[in-house]
Design a protein that fits this description.
This protein is α/β, with parallel strands linked by helices. It is built from 16 helices and 7 strands. It starts with a helix and ends with a helix.
């Protein structure tokens, strides 16, 4: 009976943690809906008055981006802003032939009168954080705009964002990500779905109530004074953006999130690229929980609600670990439920996952409706994309749980960039991309085994107990089977 009680205890704790996270999401939904009713009366610079136009430095941290560098540089060169108040730094840590092609393209833009510099380091110390920090030393701008290699801001991006810095307490202005290849595949659709939830529900929901949010690593601007006051960029976590964001807000700097300013970018189109990005984000989130949670709890100026939201924000990625625990233990729980009649009362805990799922369904529907509009047919389409997203997200739970555990236990690893493809339609070929990882991880094999495990879970629904089976967990096991099968087969066959 020790095994049975231990299984029930661990399973129940994970369910409660997921439920708490769902309640926090519901609170963010109420915040989001409330924010839609408020007018933004923020003070703004008048950029038509040359005396109010601040000097801006644009930083482009890149590493081996030969497929998108020309697109990036051409796009950034077209931004509308007084040229005598603008400089561009290409922070190039590349180790391949893209260094030369980038250098040549930068020279052409310099000949056109653009203040643009090609800055190369002799080592990658600190990875992206190190490049940004080194570039900051020579940056002339009072404000620093940052774009990753796959981002394509609209020409009036600076004109829409810079004015908000008239409020001297604003340390960061962050914009919403868009997706130039959202409809490329099922994989890009579910990535876009997840990111849209973050950039609407979560960012607005937190920012509107002055809870901590994060600069998202790109498509935003920093006040240089804020960066220095917060302690500058640090490369001891894989999500340096989240780290500096929390340090800045603990110093009482305000963040301004602009939902209505969209900055298009490219989503990973193959699963190996998505896996590397997910691993970095989830491990970095856990690393930042270890680094920042005590500081948040000790901050006397923060209200309790902000502390709770901050801790749950830092624990975002750890929800994958709880989902994975619940998934793996659900089959033993099915057998325990039907073998030990006196333990059946404990199984009311299972309803927490159902309630949590309903909360997520409601929250994400409001996000989806905001992006695509309402109506019956849109709702039917939403049901399909929600359950596809939910299934595949659970299919990533082993991969992301390993990342989370490494982060919490302090295992250090290299910053692995996400390969870019410059591909928008299925007719374009990606197979010649030199940056694709070709090695199959042992984790992929484990995911295949887990797909079979949850197939066994579906079979078990028909044979457990003596009352003709128990189908309460069948939909859950079906979604897990679909999710792990998708991740396994895509990881094996979507390769060169």
């Amino acid at each position: 009976m020790i095994f049975e009680y231990l299984t029930i205890a661990v399973y129940s704790i994970s369910l409660v943690l997921i439920f708490m996270y769902a309640l926090a999401q519901l609170n963010l939904l109420f915040n989001y809906l409330s924010a839609q009713k408020k007018d933004d009366n923020s003070p703004k610079f008048d950029l038509s008055n040359i005396e109010e136009v601040p000097f801006i430095t644009i930083q482009l941290p890149v590493f081996n981006e030969m497929y998108v560098m020309e697109r990036l540089l051409d796009n950034i060169s077209k931004l509308k802003y007084p040229k005598d108040r603008l400089e561009i730094q290409v922070l190039d840590d590349s180790t391949d032939e893209s260094v030369l092609t980038t250098k040549n393209h930068v020279r052409k833009l310099q000949e056109q009168g653009l203040d643009i510099k090609h800055i190369c380091r002799t080592n990658r110390k600190g990875f992206k954080a190190g490049a940004l920090k080194e570039g900051l030393e020579s940056a002339k701008g009072e404000f620093i705009a940052i774009f990753d290699a796959d981002f394509l801001p609209e020409q009036d991006w600076l004109l829409k964002t810079v004015p908000y810095f008239k409020d001297k307490k604003i340390g960061v202005v962050q914009t919403r990500w868009g997706h130039i290849n959202r409809n490329y595949s099922v994989l890009t659709k579910i990535q876009a779905f997840a990111l849209d939830a973050h950039f609407t529900l979560e960012q607005v929901g937190r920012n509107s109530k002055n809870h901590f949010i994060n600069f998202n690593g790109t498509a935003g601007l920093w006040r240089k004074e804020c960066i220095y006051d917060a302690g500058n960029w640090e490369g001891d976590t894989l999500t340096e953006d989240l780290d500096l964001s929390y340090r800045a807000q603990l110093k009482n700097w305000k963040f301004k999130y602009l939902e209505d300013v969209e900055t298009p970018a490219e989503l990973p189109i193959i699963i190996s690229a998505a896996r590397s990005q997910q691993f970095r984000w989830n491990k970095g989130g856990a690393e930042n929980f270890q680094k920042m949670s005590k500081r948040v709890l000790k901050a006397k100026q923060l209200p309790l609600r902000t502390k709770i939201h901050s801790l749950l924000h830092l624990l975002n990625s750890s929800m994958f670990l709880n989902v994975f625990i619940v998934a793996v233990l659900s089959i033993p729980m099915l057998y325990i439920k039907n073998e030990y009649a006196h333990l059946k009362n404990y199984f009311y805990m299972m309803s927490f996952f159902v309630i949590s799922s309903i909360i997520f369904f409601i929250c994400y529907w409001h996000m989806y409706k905001r992006s695509y509009g309402g109506g019956f047919m849109k709702f039917i389409k939403y049901i399909g994309i929600f359950f596809t997203f939910f299934s595949i997200a659970m299919g990533f739970s082993l991969h992301n749980s390993i990342a989370v555990l490494e982060g919490h236990f302090g295992k250090k690893s290299e910053f692995v960039r996400t390969p870019k493809f410059n591909i928008k339609s299925v007719q374009d070929s990606w197979k010649s991309n030199k940056y694709i990882k070709k090695k199959i991880s042992i984790n992929v094999i484990a995911e295949g085994i887990l797909a079979l495990y949850f197939a066994f879970g579906m079979y078990s629904a028909f044979v457990v107990g003596n009352q003709g089976g128990d189908f309460g967990l069948f939909p859950f096991h079906l979604m897990l089977f679909i999710g792990f099968s998708y991740v396994f087969f895509k990881s094996i066959f979507s390769r060169v």
